[in-house]
Amino acid sequence: MAQLFPTTVIGSMPRPPFVIDLFRSGSRIGENDAAWQRRMDDAVRYCVHLQEQAGIDIVSDGEWRRETYVDVIAELCNGFEWIERELFGYHQVVTEQLTPRQPGVIAGEAKFL
Prior knowledge:
Elements: H1 17-25, H2 34-53, H3 72-76, E1 77-85, E2 89-100, H4 105-112
Antiparallel strand pairs: 1-2
């Protein structure tokens, strides 16, 4: 049967407990923990395998490398500050011009795939 159009996953894949446990044990941002990184790489390989088994043409890391889906840019850039607002609790706001904190992180993640 001819392929009608390429398929991909938009957004994040649901995280299994072992991925959630990885983030509870420590974040990749600002840490140099090779064992943690190997475990996350294995988790991403599993995520890619799931997509391949489902017949997905363009795979992703499922956003599993992101501790939060909202704060990823703030984790990778300087220029954000945590503030507390009465209705919303703590969140990050831009306080100065954004500059890369860890240049090449996203490119490295894409290269891994």
